[in-house]
């Protein structure tokens, strides 16, 4: 005699429930990561370059556990990398906003340079130095190495450079970004700020690179 069997239910319900669980967990984890990032920034800012923050300090400031920390970051260096990436994204957004105020490519380049060099201002510079100090490389190596934000910020210069007649805007933008951010790093570790004259000269150099030798003597647009 053939036995009647009830077919297994489709996986749609199980999948939907699993997705809801993952969504809730994802939201919780996003909140944990943000709390850890904010707490780490606060602890590092207060410590400055006199002492390096410990994971225990960051966890306590965030009101979380060691388990929560290591759920998201395998080490403190990984957390510092995330802070640098977050800072680069914020700076890129700021520069985009500033450049959008200008209609000419010359004006956009000037806004980009001024925005980057403004990161040498007191409060911003102190925070940046503190985070870099906690990266493990030390001030000397970081000041001479490739700036953590050079890649994301270079992309903002490609269109203005192209509009200025640059034959290889990607290469020129990468070169300029590396150079300008190198100048910023020098100011950060020397604890100095660029004067208006220096900013003007850097803008001129950037425009010269973008225009090429044939256009090098075109008057700067302020």
Could you explain the architecture of this structure?
It contains 10 helices and no strands. The chain is mainly α and 222 residues long. It folds into 2 domains: 10-73; 77-222, Orthogonal Bundle (Tetracycline Repressor, domain 2), CATH 1.10.357. It is globular and about 60 Å long. The relative contact order is 0.10.
Please provide a brief summary of the model:
The protein is mainly alpha-helical. The protein has ten helices and no strands.
Quaternary structure state of the chains depicted: single chain
The parts where pLDDT drops under 50 for at least 5 residues are 138-145, 216-222
Label the structural class: mainly alpha
How would the global form be characterised?
Answer: globular
Could you tell me the CATH topology label of the largest domain.
Answer: Tetracycline Repressor, domain 2
Give the helix/strand layout:
Layout lengths: L11 H36 L7 H8 L3 H7 L3 H24 L5 H13 L4 H12 L4 H7 L5 H14 L5 H22 L5 H16 L11
Helix pairs in contact: 1-2, 1-4, 1-6, 4-5, 5-8, 5-10, 7-9, 8-9, 9-10
Name some characteristics of this structure.
mainly alpha, 2 domains, 10 helices, Tetracycline Repressor, domain 2, globular, 222 residues
